[in-house]
Design goal:
Largest sheet: 2 strands, parallel
Order of helices and strands: EHE
Structural class: alpha+beta
Shape: elongated
Helix content: 10-25%
Strand order of the largest sheet: 1-2
Number of strands: 2
Strand content: 15-25%
Radius of gyration: 12 Å
Number of domains: 1
Number of helices: 1
């Protein structure tokens, strides 16, 4: 059986915006959420949140 998930990109969006996207993904039927756990952003323009909190 195929299960669809959504990939959150904390390097690209602020945490509050990612939370809104995650809630929307859940309402749309996505069954899982994946988030990277980088301590630093990939670029100076990016962001990085501590995903384990």
């Amino acid at each position: 059986m195929v299960q669809l998930g959504w990939k959150a990109g904390p390097e690209q969006f602020p945490p509050t915006e990612l939370l809104e996207y995650a809630i929307t993904a859940e309402k749309a039927g996505f069954e899982s959420l994946d988030v990277s756990d980088h301590f630093n952003p990939w670029s100076e323009e990016g962001q990085a949140c501590f995903s384990w909190t």
